[in-house]
Design goal:
mainly beta, three-stranded antiparallel sheet
Amino acid sequence: MRIMHTCLLELPKIKPFSVPMRYLTEGYPASFICEATGVPTPKCKWLSPDGNQINTIGNVQVNGCNLTFMSVGESFTKGKYTCMAFIKIEEGGEEIGQASAVVEVVDVFGEDHVIYEGFIFRI
């Protein structure tokens, strides 16, 4: 008797960011939620505007496909942040079927500004 195995593979897809351009305020947190689908469930990595991979350290948290800055500082790097989704069949194996989405941090305002529903208010 011959046993056949089937393996379902669906390459990753990422839903585009609903707000692809962001304005942040110093002293407040900022989260970027990357919605990736695929089979098996894709893994994600984030790249900074200079192309380096972002890891959880200090003020920065990478949790699955989400990136959070616990508090945006005055030295925050503006630019394009890229979420890359991929599938790894085995540990240490190659990344298969990369998909990406970009969110751009256009500007960072001082704490005397509040951003609400797309409008910038000086307080």
